[in-house]
């Protein structure tokens, strides 16, 4: 059992949990994730370790309440247990002194970027962060990113914060303005694909962090397989980060949508059951 | 042995084989010749004193029979169900030469189930704790055997399991209708009652490294993590939607109970027409599982003939009775998809058998003809290979082949204090061979810690048995 110590609402539909998990916290590196299962009947879902505190023995997870499991996770309170958490899983981000790194985050994908940003900063890289969201209140951890980066460039679809427009437009400006040695993009598939397409002609090394459907998370089942440069790789054991110029995003998107009907059904049943019990959906 | 009616059983996940009645068990025990030099014992990877345990059954002392088995084997209810007895004890039984060999597996199962139904659990003698701690990585058949044997000798054992349930392949791989979860739980309870601690959600190599385990005071570490990474053919269309690797399909259904979706949160796709590629027990389990999820037609696609199939013959019989069809000498070359990226058919080469290959089985070759099978789901069950997660994290560990650990007959690796056994040293094999490796490793761990270490034999590449 893993106890929830703190819970914060950080954007509409986005929650932050701080959970006691000393061994995972002690070994977590930027880029790692955990697989968790809330209870006996729950499914196993992967979530990035958005932050870890070795001294306190805690990990921080950010998630968007879009499916049954994440909605249920969002209803838990400090003091509540999570039945199973395994990790840290996946390869850590290769951190070295690249020079100028541009980190591009979309939506909840920003959570993955935060520990990467801190690690790149510790390795004496110059960092530019481009965060994108529909509107200002959906920008995740804007202050924290600002604190740790050399330059922070928010973008919103409606112009309510930073630039009005897409992250790729801002990225293009940065690339044309100055030398960029590494781009890391984490977010919706279409965003990661657009970023990879943008950087390809400039031959800038581009890392994306993939989030396909996973079941067990340790390379045992192959549910999370992705096509990288024509080869099948497992996101959990070989990734989750891959060279964005080699990823078959079309296949990834197709596979991500495979359980859409079941996901919808499970969420619908859960909401109905919760309302019938008179409980509030957080 | 009694079996449930195929037309009924193919619609649910309840156990197919019903075991022996008491009267059948005694009658079967009476057929045993009680050979002076029993071949059955030589055929058993853990060398159970089979004539002795059968003599207890004759006397209707079933718990006495079970006690005798447990001197050699801590998981009798499991082995009685899933061991390939036809190639081991029963295959060596002298009666089998002229007529039917004694149903040793069914008798083993009978005494184990007798104890379960009588709701008593008799503990063997356990030596007082000797103050030495041993870590076991993986709670499958190899790990559980090492843990139980060493706990009985007085060691303080902690088993680390990466998943949220113990049992390894017994839990995530073998379906409920062949090995009910309550049987596994019962055997694991027994191992725990010997003082063994099992820690779940603990991915050794990630949550804690092997070196940290040594620093924590563990005197030896046994690695029994299995061959837990699926193989695939690398043919076009393998990543289409509704192509499952058997490991995922079975993990969803067995470990995550997807057949109870939406009562359980993990879904699995139910298909109408399913092709299962492969000829081992995992292929049979996948095919029969797909049938139970409601498929109208399930076909096994195998590149050799029934004669070369590595699965148990009993499983082919069970599958055939349930209406599964077999396409032999058929080798998939492409999985065809529709415009939405979903499986619609599988294209196969027709094969002919040529000269035997390294495995001794006749090698299939293309005949030049091909055929297309219309299906909406494909399950790849063509074998497993080693999982790199733990192995990558240990510096200097000698490996062979596709990343299997090099260990000698007694489970010793090239690193003193690190032992290994089961599928991670041999490649995918059987539950009982993993248990045999566990028994030998337990003895050599005991020798190592007590300083009775024989000179280390050179680790060699084991000869594959399948």
The best one-word shape of chain B is globular
> What is the CATH H-level superfamily of the largest domain in chain A?
Nucleotide-binding domain of ferredoxin-NADP reductase (FNR) module
Q: What's the mean pLDDT score of chain B?
A: 93
The computed structural class of chain A is alpha/beta
> Which sequence of strands runs across the widest sheet of chain B?
5-4-3-6-19
* Annotated CATH architecture of the largest domain in chain A: 3-Layer(aba) Sandwich
User: How many angstroms separate the termini of chain B?
Assistant: 26 Å
Q: Please trace the helix and strand order of chain A, writing H or E for each element.
A: EEHEEEHEEEHEHEEHEHEEEHEHH
Give the C-alpha Rg of chain B.
22 Å
Characterise the protein shown here.
The complex is a heterodimer of chains A (282) and B (466). Chain A has 282 residues and is of the alpha/beta class. Helices cover 30% and strands 32% of the residues of chain A. Chain A has 2 domains: 2-89, Elongation Factor Tu (Ef-tu), domain 3, CATH 2.40.30.10; 100-209, Nucleotide-binding domain of ferredoxin-NADP reductase (FNR) module (Rossmann fold, 3-Layer(aba) Sandwich), CATH 3.40.50.80. Chain A has 9 helices and 16 strands. In chain A, strand 8, helix 3 and strand 9 (126-133) form a beta-alpha-beta unit. In chain A, helix 2 (68-74) runs parallel beside helix 9 (260-276). Chain A is globular. The model of chain A has no long low-confidence stretch (mean pLDDT 94). With 466 residues, chain B is of the alpha/beta class. Chain B folds into 3 domains: 2-118, Alpha-helical ferredoxin (Fumarate Reductase Iron-sulfur Protein, Chain B, domain 2); 133-228 and 385-449, 3-Layer(bba) Sandwich (FAD/NAD(P)-binding domain), CATH 3.50.50.60; 232-382, FAD/NAD(P)-binding domain, CATH 3.50.50. Helix content of chain B is 34%, strand content 19%. Chain B has 19 helices and 19 strands. Chain B has a 5-stranded parallel β-sheet. Chain B has a 5-stranded parallel β-sheet with strand order 8-15-9-10-11. In chain B, helix 16 (313-321) links the parallel strand 10 (297-301) and strand 11 (325-327). The longest helix of chain B has 19 residues, at 431-449. Chain B starts with a strand and ends in a 17-residue tail after the last helix. The chains are: A alpha/beta (282), B alpha/beta (466). Chains A and B meet through helix 1, strand 7, strand 14, helix 8 and helix 9 of A and strand 7 and helix 14 of B.
